[in-house]
Amino acid sequence: MFESVKLVGMTEIVQIGQPPLDVHLRRSPRARRFSLRISNSTGVISLTVPKRASARAAIGFAHEQEAWLRRNLAKRPVQVVPVFGGCILLDGQKVELRQGTRRAPILGDGYLEVSGHEYALGARLRGYLKTRAREKMMAASEHYATKLGQDISRITLRDTRSRWGSCTSDGNLMYSWRLIMAPPSVQDYVAAHEVCHLIEMNHSVAYWQLVESIFPDYRNQRNWLKENGTKLHRYQF
Ligand SMILES: [Zn+2]
Prior knowledge:
Elements: E1 3-8, E2 11-16, E3 21-28, E4 35-38, E5 45-50, H1 55-64, H2 66-75, E6 87-90, E7 93-99, E8 106-107, E9 111-114, H3 121-148, E10 154-158, E11 165-167, E12 172-176, H4 184-196, H5 205-214, H6 218-228
Helix pairs in contact: 3-4, 4-6
Bound molecules: zinc ion (ZN).
């Protein structure tokens, strides 16, 4: 059984199995037991280690979980780096990336023309998707806010990992621009979801009734995000 511990900054990394898997040990004063997780976005494996547990016990635990780790790593969606001739998602549809000459990207039937070198493609796509996401989420937020008689103040687009949107009590909305890759009905649902938080800052029964009143089909869209949301994070722009 091959194992080693190396120190990288403040993190201890343990390697287990063959080919070796890097397991990042994180000491936690509050943890009561070992817990292992794989980051959705980066694939980094981290093992939370209770303060009093020995490194030996942590390594032992990691070894016991090796089969589980390999199974779950294999299930992770493959990362996609956009290239000309490849595809990305836009409004839930696959669009082929083609090299164009115009300054601004041109969306055709099933394809997107983007100018410049391939190494700049990711950055150009990010800008394009963010702009489209802003327009879409702005319009959808205003639409649902009007239905509720509410005002929205500001909309911010980010590349968030753990949430698709958020809302503050003073009417500032935040969305992940990756939503522009999801079907339009999902984008609408997320806007309706956040706008309802202007009235109910929780996920109570009253809150979900409010969502249903302006967006009756919310369950299907919410399930779509649960089942397919990680796919939107595959793309490395
Ligand atoms: Zn919510």
